[in-house]
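Is this the right way to post structure tokens for a design question? Let me know if I should format differently. Anyway, here goes:
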């Protein structure tokens, strides 16, 4: 198998201006490292020094010391997929190039050809992980198609019948393209295509039908049976490989859209989770006010809580609506020097009612006046998530222990619950978004699977660390350690 660590491209071009332009296209578009040489002699020298480092090459057909494609022969012999970039065009030359075993070719005419070569270089890189199934009852045809595909770095599986093809797909779930011949003994290509489509939707598996008979009517039958494309035999390498690469592009676009959709859902889930904190604070304060007339001091405190939570909520909404945050996923911090002790006590006071409703006592051991430079809103989210989780998973009529310590360089907050603990085999999932943990909330509270992931992202952004301990195999203790001042990166 091709070395998956290869990230370099060999560019063989005697026109310096053209080489600079193409190198710029490749590096800026895809970030690959490009080594440029101008002669066959330099090709031999650089390959001797850098054997096995190139996943692709772009080679000019005519060079000062290799006017008749000798550099092409040398690069192909070195088993480096070669894209030939030449100013000459002719059917006989094209046939000769394919006979040499090249991966592809393009003409030096028009700016789009630069884009095409750049695209093809990237495809050769991506193709090293693209698995294709070739189904044809002719061994000669299977071998011929396999050779073409392997020149472009595809991983190729073959099958001589429909039944063998189905078994191969079952054993190799990463296959994303199937090339199927129409006329086979036993199960026909049409029947095989329809059978495959029952379990493999078009968005996850492209099917390219091939046949030496039927022409356009055959193409229509194949596509109506579930194929994505059709190519007439005998296969012209240039046409066939273009269709296969476009099929790979379509599948990868689907996977990328699917990934983006999941990220969007995760983002919306995170947003909803973050907003719950300030809204919960406002509701808690309102419930206090509605229960009974508070003392003037308590009344002012509750109004301040509502006001502060409203500010937090507005800040959250502004951040969530920031397109750059949505696209990058980077946590932006707005740091200020604050009293961590005061911030933690405020959050504990906020959740006292929730704890009392389950008969849970909150024991506090808070070091006074711990000053640190942090994003206060993010730190409040950290405290909210840890405290509410402790209440959520603690048994009724138990206790939660919360400590704040400071060693002069950093502060540590520990939150210990009175719950069943977390199984050792599940602890690795703790800080991953949407991870399923078997531990259940003791009061039937809802779980989103986001709280600890959000907490970790905020802690990481502050260059701190969060970790979990379960010394007694029952109660859980979470620790957050953050520097008092931002560390220099």
């Amino acid at each position: 198998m091709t070395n998956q660590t290869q990230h370099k491209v060999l560019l063989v071009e005697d026109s310096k201006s053209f080489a600079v332009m193409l190198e710029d296209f490749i590096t800026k578009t895809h970030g690959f490292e490009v080594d440029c040489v101008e002669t066959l002699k330099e090709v031999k020298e650089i390959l001797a020094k850098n054997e096995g480092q190139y996943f692709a090459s772009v080679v000019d057909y005519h060079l000062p010391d290799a006017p008749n494609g000798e550099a092409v022969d040398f690069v192909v012999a070195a088993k480096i997929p070669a894209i030939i970039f030449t100013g000459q065009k002719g059917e006989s030359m094209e046939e000769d190039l394919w006979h040499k075993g090249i991966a592809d070719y393009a003409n030096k005419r028009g700016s789009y050809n630069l884009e095409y070569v750049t695209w093809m270089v990237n495809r050769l890189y991506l193709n090293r992980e693209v698995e294709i199934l070739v189904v044809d009852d002719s061994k000669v045809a299977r071998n011929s198609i396999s050779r073409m595909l392997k020149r472009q770095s595809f991983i190729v599986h073959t099958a001589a019948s429909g039944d063998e093809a189905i078994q191969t797909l079952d054993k190799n779930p990463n296959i994303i393209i199937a090339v199927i011949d129409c006329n086979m003994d036993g199960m026909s290509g049409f029947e095989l295509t329809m059978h495959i489509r029952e379990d493999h939707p078009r968005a996850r598996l492209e099917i390219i039908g091939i046949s030496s008979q039927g022409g356009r009517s055959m193409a229509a039958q194949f596509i109506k049976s579930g194929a994505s494309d059709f190519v007439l035999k005998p296969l012209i390498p240039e046409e066939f490989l273009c269709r296969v690469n476009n099929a790979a592009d379509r599948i990868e676009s689907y996977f990328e859209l699917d990934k983006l959709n999941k990220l969007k859902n995760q983002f919306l889930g995170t947003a909803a989770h973050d907003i719950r904190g300030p809204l919960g604070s406002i509701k808690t304060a309102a419930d206090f006010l509605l229960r009974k007339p508070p003392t003037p001091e308590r009344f002012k405190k509750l109004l301040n809580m509502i006001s502060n939570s409203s500010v937090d909520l507005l800040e959250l909404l502004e951040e969530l609506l920031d397109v750059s945050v949505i696209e990058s996923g980077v946590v932006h911090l707005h740091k200020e020097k604050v009293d961590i002790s005061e911030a933690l006590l405020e959050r504990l006071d906020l959740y006292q009612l929730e704890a009392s409703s389950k008969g849970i006592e909150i024991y506090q051991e808070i070091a006074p006046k711990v000053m640190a430079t942090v994003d206060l809103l993010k730190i409040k989210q950290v405290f909210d998530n840890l405290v509410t989780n402790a209440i959520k998973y603690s048994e009724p009529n138990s206790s939660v222990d919360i400590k704040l310590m400071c060693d002069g360089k950093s502060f540590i907050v520990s939150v210990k619950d009175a719950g069943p603990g977390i199984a050792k085999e599940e602890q690795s999932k703790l800080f991953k978004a949407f991870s399923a943990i078997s531990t259940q909330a003791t009061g039937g509270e809802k779980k989103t699977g986001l709280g600890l992931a959000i907490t970790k992202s905020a802690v990481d952004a502050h260059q701190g660390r969060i970790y979990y301990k379960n010394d007694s195999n029952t109660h859980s203790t979470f620790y957050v350690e953050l520097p008092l001042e931002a560390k220099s990166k």
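Format looks fine. Someone answered above. Worth noting: The chain has 16 helices and 17 strands. The first strand starts at residue 8 and ends at 12.
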